[in-house]
């Protein structure tokens, strides 16, 4: 059952959306950065091994 927000519904739903989107986007960003860092580390290790 959804609560009734009356006149402030647009603002409240926007905050819910932001509250959901920010952690998801941060997770995606962190995953991409970790993948890039791992790739860079492997490249540096390969260069050092030569």
Automatic annotation (TrEMBL):
> Which UniProt keywords are listed?
Membrane, Transmembrane, Transmembrane helix
Does the keyword Transmembrane helix feature in the UniProt annotation?
yes
Q: Could you name the domain of life of the organism this protein comes from?
A: Bacteria
Where, by residue number, does the polypeptide cross the bilayer? 12-32
Descriptive protein name: Heme exporter protein D
Q: Give the organism, scientific name.
A: Henriciella pelagia
Q: Which lineage?
A: Bacteria, Pseudomonadati, Pseudomonadota, Alphaproteobacteria, Hyphomonadales
């Amino acid at each position: 059952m959804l609560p009734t927000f009356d006149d402030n519904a647009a603002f409240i739903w926007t905050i819910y959306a932001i509250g959901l989107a920010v952690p998801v986007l941060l997770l995606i960003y962190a995953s991409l950065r970790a993948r890039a860092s791992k790739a860079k580390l492997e490249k540096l290790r390969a260069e050092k091994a030569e």
